[in-house]
Amino acid sequence: MLESNYLLTDEQMMQFITKGYLVLQNDIPQQLHQSIMNQINYVMHNEGNPGNNILPRVPDIQQLFDTPTVKGALSSVLGSDYYMHPHRHCHYNQPGNATPGGGQWHKDGYWSSMRSHRPWWAMIFYYTHDITEDLGPTAIMPGTQYYEKFLGDRGETLLPTGKAGTMVLVHFDLWHKASLNVSELDRYMLKFQFLRLSAPEIPTWNHQSSEMIVPEGTPAIHLNLWQDVWDWLRGEQSAKQAGTISEERLLALRQELEAEEEITSLNAAYELGQLGIQGIEELIGQIINGSNLTAVRAAYGLQGAGIAAIPELLRVMKHEDEKHRALAIFVLGMIGSSEGEVVSSLIASLQDESEWVRRNAVESLGMIKHTGEQAASALANVLMDSLKCETNDASQANKTVNYVSYQTYITNKIGYTAALSLLRIGKSGNVQEVVRSLEQALYSNDRYVRAYAAEALTHLRTEEAVDILIRFYRSSRWCPDTSKVSTF
């Protein structure tokens, strides 16, 4: 059992919420880091980048993620049942790389149909060696995890440095880039991604004060947004403002929500989410009548309104426009309540003509607490149906999906999301039915469907699930010592 002193403090959690990163120092012998770096150096120069296979190719890396320091930080942010995502990568920054100033600022490609302000996902950057600014560490822009648009010169650039074993825990959507390596040495950074499997019910860190205290020196840019994340991580609903607000203030918030400036718009969205029925009606109106950009921001604001927004969201689920239906379903998943007709309405949406709507419904069913047996059975059926529709032509499969046409790394988006949701709630349904669907998914054309299916079966751990996994692993086991340069 993890000792509580390895969990994050309130102050560290607030830094993660406001700035989107924490630097971790693992107390591990230098010899292990040197060994890992030597192994990676050999692989990169003799075999090429192993991509997702970096962990089985260099198994010693797992020791880093099994330390109390890392497990404590990830448990604090993502809950104790967090999961290491199958996508991981070794970033190789050579001396004097050709790109002026290093790489390009970006957010990593994400795995849902929408990004989440609440930390359902996180990443860790690990350095195998001492990392200085000269070596070109991954630059981060603190506090930008909530922005779709790049801040440019208005943002602060930070280059986390430290001894070998330095790890940087970041919000999944934090803007970052490779900086320029001006040294004469190779720089290696391993990127691993993690996700939470359930919405928080209680704080999972060393929580002492219910009051949100913004770190000293941090401009109070997004108090309502930060409060929403803080309260959600504590398993609490944010306190709503009592009474009514004036028409003048409501009009001002509407104008701010529609503003092109993202900071202004997000502040208005989250303030409206705290204003009870008046704010809910305004945000719902923007989802239905606003621009695409304003509608998405309104959806983020609505998640903070909590269960009071459910009746209006259920009504929007019947709208003729797929965008409105999809956004309403996204918000229901973020609210996470099975109150009233939420679950039955989401199950009905699994038959929607829009893939965007269906995919959001699939994911929301996996995020909501206490969905019951019917939800898991419905997801198992969705998973099996998606496997029947798979094609080996990934580019063709993505041409008709314009809402995430750039997510070419997921070729079966419905199946991928269904396997993830079954990983989260598979135990709540007919386990035998769930196991049968996951067994078929082990042979999906999509590598991430296969990975989630294997992990879901591991979580279920029934006798049948274990037997299926044993047969699967016998044919898929990776030998880390076998490569194009090995002889036997």
List the helices and strands and how they pair.
Elements: H1 10-19, E1 21-25, H2 30-46, H3 54-57, H4 62-65, H5 68-78, E2 83-93, E3 121-127, E4 138-140, E5 166-171, E6 176-178, E7 187-195, H6 223-233, H7 247-257, H8 262-272, H9 276-289, H10 292-303, H11 310-316, H12 322-335, H13 342-349, H14 355-367, H15 373-388, H16 394-399, H17 413-425, H18 431-441, H19 447-460, H20 463-476
Q: Could you describe the 3D structure shown?
A:
Helix content is 45%, strand content 9%. The protein has helices at residues 10-19, 30-46, 54-57, 62-65, 68-78, 223-233, 247-257, 262-272, 276-289, 292-303, 310-316, 322-335, 342-349, 355-367, 373-388, 394-399, 413-425, 431-441, 447-460, 463-476, and strands at 21-25, 83-93, 121-127, 138-140, 166-171, 176-178, 187-195. The radius of gyration is 23 Å and the shape is globular. The longest helix has 17 residues, at 30-46. Helix 11 packs antiparallel against helix 12, helix 14 packs parallel to helix 17 (413-425) and helix 15 packs antiparallel against helix 17. With 488 residues, it is of the alpha+beta class.
Shape: globular
- Kindly give the count of domains: 3
Helical content band: 40-55%
Low-confidence stretches: 394-401
Task: Summarize the main sheet.
Answer: 5 strands, antiparallel
